[in-house]
Amino acid sequence: MGKQSAGILLYRKINSELQVFLVHPGGPFFRNKDDGSWSVPKGEFLEDEDPLAAARREFEEETGQAINGQFIQLNLIKQKGGKTVQAWALEGDIDHLNIRSNTFEIEWPPRSGKQQSFPEIDRAGWFAIDTAKVKINPAQVELIMELVELDKKK
Predict the structure, then answer these.
(1) β-strands 121-128, 72-73 pairing
(2) Is pTM beyond 0.70 here?
């Protein structure tokens, strides 16, 4: 089976406007990338691991904040590289300016022999739906659109 990730699409309503919480990947490869680079907080999980538990763990690792509540399972999506993403929507609110992400190490600069540490997530934000559809990884737009449809049914 190919790589699989699990994530949380956190959302809130401000003055009846739906907003979603997205994170921007850290590290040198995404430093100057913006539109199309943001994501729901997510991460890979193993075949024998509960996907929702993995999604909650990844959210906490990437933001430094644990979340609980009534999770709404969204449809599975497949990203361009073949990775599948299982996500859950959750209504909530966190301070996007106060995230504390875990870190990773890579050789940087390339072929330098030096290891450098970078935050997995370098920033987070709340976005209106139209803006979020531009910011997020194109395959994940489906998750936002499904959330919008679910919200219309409320």
Answers:
(1) unpaired
(2) yes
